[in-house]
């Protein structure tokens, strides 16, 4: 009996390992040591880092540069809190990460980008790679140098073959998705003239709207991020010339001026935005939104109505993208955040679809000019293909 159980357990383990093998591979870390001399460093002064899986076959001269997410720090206190974590120091980063979804090297799971050079840039500056403050306070030893980090990493990749790129795409998730919007034209300017360049933002279209208490909490927060990191000079002049710099951290105020083709993948009920923009803890002192934020099926009818209003605000903010045919959009009605890095939402038999099209196909068709894609989902709960996230309350003690 024991042997049968052991056999079943080993069979199950092999199945799990095979699943991991087919849906993701481990890729080692590269530290950009020569960036330190340029002052292009993480919050703690350590060198920036990325993970690089080389392209092959027909993809040898194609490059996908994908930026990791991780929120922002808005003052010395919150930046110190992340300084000695993986979000502020390359010393604390895992030396291997799993590449899946848009980073997968398997044609079955990533048909358009599997054989490209695929890079995951680690996020360690706390301001979507926009900051640049020369002075370093000796007491805190905080370095606000994100803009230099972005340039140093691209320069390092240029030396490793990006200078020969035929196709290139800057993408990212969450704060990395915001990076891919804010730095889209910068990226275009850094790579060779003849390269076909496009940008993809996954869950990076953060909107400026009131929270449930009626306050513009996120606007104040972004103002502090931009001030702390000295980001103003690295935000688009087309926006900062007529708006406060903090407002230019919102894509709705600056995306229309981006000249490079841009694709937005975003849930209309983005779980991060619901938790931190619509119903942040400061606006919900009695925790009325706590269970709803962890699981959308636990929301009351009143809360769902408030979330429907948030969706309308999100769709209104999307008009800031402009009407160019070079813009792509996959706006589904899921309770999710970041859908390109995970195989289950990027491309699988049960992946989310809009008009019968997966995110992977929509992005691939748009990149290769096979067909444009600009689709917005019907309101929750109409979309049965969604992978609505359920969050562990222990992972989110502050929610």
Key attributes of the depicted protein:
globular, alpha/beta, ten-stranded mixed sheet, 12 strands, two-stranded antiparallel sheet, 399 residues, 15% strand, 13 helices
Task: Provide structural commentary.
This protein is of the alpha/beta class and 399 residues long. Helices cover 31% and strands 15% of the residues. The protein contains 13 helices and twelve strands. It has helices at 2-23, 76-83, 146-159, 175-182, 184-190, 217-229, 237-240, 251-254, 271-278, 290-294, 301-318, 343-346, 359-367, and strands at 25-31, 49-53, 62-67, 96-99, 117-121, 167-173, 196-202, 262-267, 327-332, 353-354, 357-358, 374-376. The strands form two sheets. It has a ten-stranded mixed beta sheet, with helices on both faces. It has a two-stranded antiparallel ribbon with strand order 10-11. β10 (353-354) and β11 form a beta hairpin. The longest helix has 22 residues, at 2-23. The termini are far apart. The model is unreliable at 13-22 (pLDDT under 50).
Question: Can you lay out the helices and strands and say which pair or pack?
Answer:
Layout: H1 2-23, E1 25-31, E2 49-53, E3 62-67, H2 76-83, E4 96-99, E5 117-121, H3 146-159, E6 167-173, H4 175-182, H5 184-190, E7 196-202, H6 217-229, H7 237-240, H8 251-254, E8 262-267, H9 271-278, H10 290-294, H11 301-318, E9 327-332, H12 343-346, E10 353-354, E11 357-358, H13 359-367, E12 374-376
Parallel strand pairs: 3-5, 3-6, 6-7, 7-8, 8-9, 9-12
Antiparallel strand pairs: 1-2, 1-4, 2-5, 10-11
């Amino acid at each position: 009996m024991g042997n049968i159980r052991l056999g079943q357990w080993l069979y199950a383990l092999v199945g799990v390992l095979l699943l991991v093998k087919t849906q993701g591979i481990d890729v080692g870390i590269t530290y950009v040591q020569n960036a330190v001399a340029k002052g292009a460093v993480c919050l703690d002064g350590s060198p920036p880092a990325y993970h690089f899986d080389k392209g092959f076959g027909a993809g040898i001269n194609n490059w996908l540069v994908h930026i990791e997410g991780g929120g922002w720090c808005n003052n010395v206190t919150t930046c110190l809190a992340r300084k000695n974590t993986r979000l502020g120091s390359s010393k604390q980063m895992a030396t291997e990460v799993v590449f899946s979804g848009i980073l997968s090297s398997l044609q079955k799971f990533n048909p358009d980008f599997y054989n490209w050079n695929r890079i995951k840039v680690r996020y360690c500056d706390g301001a979507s790679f926009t900051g640049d403050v020369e002075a370093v306070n000796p007491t805190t030893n905080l370095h606000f140098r994100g803009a230099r980090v972005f340039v140093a990493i691209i320069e390092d990749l240029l030396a490793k073959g990006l200078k020969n790129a035929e196709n290139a795409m800057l993408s990212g998730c969450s704060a990395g998705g915001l990076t891919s919007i804010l730095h889209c034209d910068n990226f275009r300017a850094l790579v060779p003239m003849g390269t076909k360049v496009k940008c993809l933002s996954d869950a990076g279209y953060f909107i400026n709207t009131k929270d449930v208490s009626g306050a513009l909490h996120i606007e104040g927060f972004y103002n502090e991020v931009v001030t702390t990191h000295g980001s103003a000079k690295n935000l688009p002049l087309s926006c900062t010339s007529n708006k406060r710099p903090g407002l230019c951290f919102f894509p709705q105020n600056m995306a229309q001026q981006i000249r490079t083709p841009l694709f937005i993948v975003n849930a209309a009920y983005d779980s991060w935005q619901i938790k931190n923009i619509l119903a942040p803890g400061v606006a919900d002192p009695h925790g009325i939104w706590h269970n709803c934020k962890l699981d959308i099926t636990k929301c009351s009818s009143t809360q769902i109505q408030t979330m429907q209003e948030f969706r309308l605000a999100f769709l209104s903010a999307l008009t800031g993208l402009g009407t160019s045919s070079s813009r792509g959009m996959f706006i589904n009605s899921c309770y999710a955040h970041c859908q390109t890095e995970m195989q289950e939402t990027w491309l699988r038999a049960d992946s989310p679809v809009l008009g019968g099209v997966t995110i992977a196909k929509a992005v691939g068709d748009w990149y290769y000019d096979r067909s444009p894609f600009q689709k917005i989902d019907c309101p929750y709960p109409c979309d049965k293909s969604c992978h609505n996230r359920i969050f562990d309350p222990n992972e989110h003690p502050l929610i």
